[in-house]
Amino acid sequence: MNTFLENQNWRYATKKFDVSKKITTEDLNILKEAIRLSSSSYGLQPYKVIIVENPELRAQLQPSAWGQSQIVEASHLIIFANETNVDDTTIDSYLKNISDTRNTPIEALSGYGDFMKSKISTLDHDVKSIWTAKQTYLALGNLLNAAAELKIDATPMEGFVPAQVNEILGLDKLGLNATLIATLGYRHEEDATQHYKKVRKSNEDLFITL
């Protein structure tokens, strides 16, 4: 079997982490780079990624995540937060990054910038927030795949109260909203979930070829 598919079969949403095992700085940097290189609409990456290492802060966050033990037991806690105030300034900053990175005159990007602004800046605030929140799922997918390649366990979570996380971390003041949580580390030998057979739809139920 293809190694990538083997690792996908190996991974699962870990329920109990081994608190004695920590992710190395080298591996953490690889995971961060996998997130950084993730695709996003227009390449805009309208989100921030918060790595919570402080154990006291993680204990504060646990009740807002329905008391799930992974919040405090995992080696690392990562929170994806979408930007809620994407506007023309955000796009202009992105265009400057393109210009600097590719050594391209900023004037040559004006058409692309105007196109983005016509599609994004005109959106209602709620619609725009939903759109930016969706982008975080692309980054999460890259993180999960990279973690599996490194044989690092990961648990993606939507089971938390965003407003409480926002308040604890002061995200509202930064124009951010917590959308996803991922806990990373190494499975505990007592986590029975690792022995469950993976349940997915069959090819016949999942795919439609037209």
Question: What would you note in describing this structure?
Answer:
The protein is built from 9 helices and 4 strands. The chain is of the alpha+beta class. It has a domain at 3-85 and 136-187: 3-Layer(aba) Sandwich (NADH Oxidase), CATH 3.40.109.10. α2 (25-36) crosses α7 and α5 runs antiparallel to α6. The model has no long low-confidence stretch (mean pLDDT 97).
How do the helices and strands line up, and which of them pair or pack?
Blueprint: H1 3-10, H2 25-36, E1 47-52, H3 55-61, H4 70-73, E2 76-83, H5 88-102, H6 110-120, H7 125-149, E3 153-157, H8 162-169, E4 176-185, H9 203-206
Antiparallel strand pairs: 1-2, 2-4, 3-4
Helix pairs in contact: 2-7, 5-6
Domain Nitroreductase: 10-186
Cofactor: FMN
Organism: Flavobacterium gawalongense
Please tag this protein with its features.
14% strand, 9 helices, alpha+beta
Please identify the top-level CATH class of one domain. Alpha Beta
CATH architecture of one domain: 3-Layer(aba) Sandwich
- Biggest β-sheet: count, sense, barrel? 4 strands, antiparallel
Mean pLDDT: 97
What is the count of DSSP helices, taking H or I runs of 4+ residues? 9
> What is the percentage of strand-forming residues?
5-15%
Which spans of ≥5 residues are poorly predicted at pLDDT below 50?
A: none
Family: Belongs to the nitroreductase family.
Pfam family, one: Nitroreductase
Keywords: Flavoprotein, FMN, NADP, Oxidoreductase
Protein name: NAD(P)H-dependent oxidoreductase
